[in-house]
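testing teh design pipeline on a random one, pls ignore if ur not involved
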């Protein structure tokens, strides 16, 4: 079943099963009004309180729910226990308001898909939508109504551990992937038993943490905020995202959870959004450590006034909102609006009519079609970075399989897999044995036991295995715990003795294929030089093994593309393709450190912006990826050299598969606005298309570029396109492509 068919099937079941329950927006608003009119202030504030089941479970929890002091739980995935607590809420609390249950379902519930940065590498929003729909179906079967995903934080820093959870450095790719995930989770109706509410996070600029250190301050100024960091949020909100989470970081002195200008004024008043805002875990009271609030009471006041509807776990709303209202420091209207937003979510999820989790239907967990979809996503997410012809593996009789990630069922799942099971993971070693047992002699020696393992004791055995084999495949990378929340690295490179392992394997002169399974782009320049081929697989999830084996042996040609620039050196970070230009851009012919004469005189004449020791080039640019064939671009043409304001342009190019295998190319369209009221990036991705071509085949690829896609928030802080000259490229990545230009009049 292809992604479209599956999505259709899932949403068809929505229509059949829940047509009876569907409520219009105005019916919901009427029901909210009726309920609100009956609620006491304490009951309203209770709705604004979220507790974590793993911390708060116990006899008192049921009582708290009974007396209306809990509106939501997170981290409860036992449907029986949940049904009992839900029964207390619905049958024993005064107004019978159901609980809404949240959980971090970030890249799958039981069936684990590649981490989001890997999903972004597919450049395939339809596939991502399908994965989210599957995650929703599995999660809702366990009682989860609401996921804290997608994470839409743009990140330009390879040190930041949480980039694993996002879609990389580009706002257009992030917007496409983020809205696809929202559509997948939410389906056509939140009341569908296969749908869950999405939560776009972390609002906002959390990925711009200084130095790539998690939770750190950010300094994103207003134009950059609107033109880059907010772009995926706006797109996901337009796609119908039901909830949003405020961030831990403070930006320019204001913590996300206390930012009234962004939450209440922009999100609500300017964007007109009627979803629900939740704080991050204790991010209300963490405003004290930030130095933005003196105590929990002031923190509660600032968060509620900023427009945060529900407080995750820190309890300051419950304790202080009543007196803050009495003191006139928070308006009754603000509280009512927050409660409306919370009740609206519960109504939209159909919880008033259908509060319980049905435990009698067959479990969808690990359904065969879910595993198949996870495998397809893992296949499309891997990026071929180098190949001197050793791949795909053909005609080999023996294979040395080495490295700590060859058989690491827990670690290949990646970060945030609370509900995934390692015993259901298929590792590359298991998949190889399954597919080639009896045909290829598979010699397994890990060499290094786990990614941080500094012991070199096993390397000799791995080298011996390499010597006995036709080809060596080294599975290296990062354990899952080296990326994700609170797991940033100052040196994002291969840890432990892995570098030594690769260096020793290279000395055997056996063909060396390196497969990296990691949570982030690592600085892998040395390993790349040592390798005959490198396949980069961001932690690929449950079905990573079979997917990688398919790619290594050429059952499928790689089609992933980098969603983030790869740095050569950590000191180049932040390095990203869509940067603004300097007044003295690098020309590519500059004097490097070893070329400078001794006692050279100080001069800035003719100098440009670069590092003496590293230049400015990345290891690999955004959008990069090879496959088992070659593609050629030709005949780039525009429907006109001029485009009128509010008009559009047809862009066409011919793509030819000039190699010997069928493969998929990700055709990318970039522009540059040459001069604006603000300086504009040297390149900006505007559109992309996956195109599959048989060997020797040719096709015309078409894009429609609208003036809306050229628009940005300029000096006047209004979003519009500015007249003038534009450059345009169609090509295989952000560094190459056919170039032309046009004028916007
Ligand atoms: C903290 C994380 O920042 C957030 O992304 C997550 O959803 C919450 N904890 C809940 O687990």
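output:
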């Amino acid at each position: 079943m292809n992604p479209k068919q599956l999505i259709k099937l899932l949403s068809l079941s929505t229509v059949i099963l829940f047509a009876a329950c569907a409520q219009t927006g105005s019916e919901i608003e009427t029901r909210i009004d009726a309920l609100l009119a009956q609620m006491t202030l304490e009951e309203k504030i209770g709705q604004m309180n979220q507790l974590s089941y793993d911390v708060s479970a116990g006899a008192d929890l049921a009582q708290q729910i009974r007396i209306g002091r809990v509106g939501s739980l997170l981290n409860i995935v036992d449907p029986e226990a949940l049904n009992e607590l839900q029964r207390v809420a619905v049958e024993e609390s005064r107004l019978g308001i159901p609980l809404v249950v949240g959980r971090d379902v970030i890249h799958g519930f039981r069936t684990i898909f590649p981490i989001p940065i890997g999903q972004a590498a597919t450049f395939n929003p339809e596939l991502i939508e399908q994965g989210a729909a599957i995650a929703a179906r599995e999660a809702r079967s366990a009682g989860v109504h609401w996921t804290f995903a997608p994470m839409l934080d743009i990140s330009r820093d390879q040190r930041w551990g949480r980039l694993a959870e996002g879609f990389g450095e580009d706002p257009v790719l992030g917007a496409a992937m983020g809205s696809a995930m929202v559509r997948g989770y939410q389906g056509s109706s939140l009341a569908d038993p296969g749908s869950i509410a999405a939560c776009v996070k972390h609002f906002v600029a959390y990925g711009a943490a200084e130095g790539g250190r998690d939770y750190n301050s950010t300094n994103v100024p207003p134009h950059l905020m609107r033109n880059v960091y907010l772009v995926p949020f706006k797109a996901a909100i337009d796609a119908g995202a039901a909830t949003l989470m405020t961030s831990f970081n403070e930006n320019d002195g204001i913590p996300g959870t206390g930012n009234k200008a962004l939450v209440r004024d922009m999100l609500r008043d300017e964007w007109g959004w009627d979803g629900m805002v939740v704080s991050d875990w204790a991010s209300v009271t963490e405003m004290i450590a930030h130095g933005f609030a003196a105590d929990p009471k002031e923190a509660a006041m600032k968060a509620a006034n900023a427009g945060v509807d529900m407080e995750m776990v820190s309890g300051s709303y419950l304790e202080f909102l009543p007196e803050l209202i009495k003191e006139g420091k928070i308006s009754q209207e603000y509280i009512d609006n927050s409660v409306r937003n919370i009740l609206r979510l519960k109504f939209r999820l159909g919880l008033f009519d259908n509060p319980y989790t049905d435990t009698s239907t067959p479990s969808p967990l690990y359904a065969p079609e879910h595993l198949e979809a996870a495998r397809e996503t893992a296949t499309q997410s891997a990026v071929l970075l180098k190949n001197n012809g050793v791949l795909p593996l053909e005609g080999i009789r023996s294979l040395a399989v080495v490295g700590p990630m060859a058989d690491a069922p827990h670690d290949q799942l990646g970060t945030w897999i609370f509900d995934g099971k390692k015993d259901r993971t298929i590792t590359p070693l298991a998949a190889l044995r399954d597919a080639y047992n009896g045909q290829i002699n598979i010699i397994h020696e890990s060499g290094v036991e786990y990614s941080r393992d500094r012991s070199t004791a096993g390397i000799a055995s791995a080298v011996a295995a390499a010597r006995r084999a036709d080809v060596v495949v080294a599975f290296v990378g990062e354990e899952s715990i080296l990326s994700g929340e609170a797991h940033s690295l100052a040196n994002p490179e291969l840890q432990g003795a892995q570098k030594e392992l690769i260096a020793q394997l290279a000395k055997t002169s056996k063909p060396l294929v390196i497969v990296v399974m990691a949570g982030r782009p690592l600085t892998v320049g040395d390993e790349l030089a040592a390798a005959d081929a490198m396949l980069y697989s961001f932690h690929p999830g449950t079905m990573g093994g079979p997917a990688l084996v398919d790619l290594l042996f050429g059952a499928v040609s790689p089609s992933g593309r980098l969603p983030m620039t790869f740095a050569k050196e950590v000191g180049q970070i932040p390095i990203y393709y869509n940067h603004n230009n300097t007044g003295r851009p690098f020309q590519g012919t500059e004097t490097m450190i070893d070329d400078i004469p001794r006692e050279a005189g100080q001069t800035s004449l003719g100098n440009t912006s670069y590092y003496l020791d590293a230049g400015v080039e990345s290891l690999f640019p955004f959008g990069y990826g090879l496959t088992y064939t070659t593609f050629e671009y030709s005949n780039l043409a525009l429907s006109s050299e001029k485009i009128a304001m509010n008009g559009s342009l047809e862009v066409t190019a011919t793509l030819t598969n000039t190699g010997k295998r069928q493969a998929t190319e990700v055709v990318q369209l970039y522009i540059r606005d040459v001069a604006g009221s603000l300086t504009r990036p040297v390149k900006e991705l505007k559109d992309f298309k996956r195109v599959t071509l048989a060997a020797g085949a040719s096709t015309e690829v078409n894009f429609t570029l609208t003036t809306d896609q050229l628009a940005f928030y300029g000096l006047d802080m209004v979003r519009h396109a500015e007249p003038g000259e534009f450059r345009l490229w169609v090509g295989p990545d952000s560094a190459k492509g056919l170039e032309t230009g046009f004028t916007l009049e």
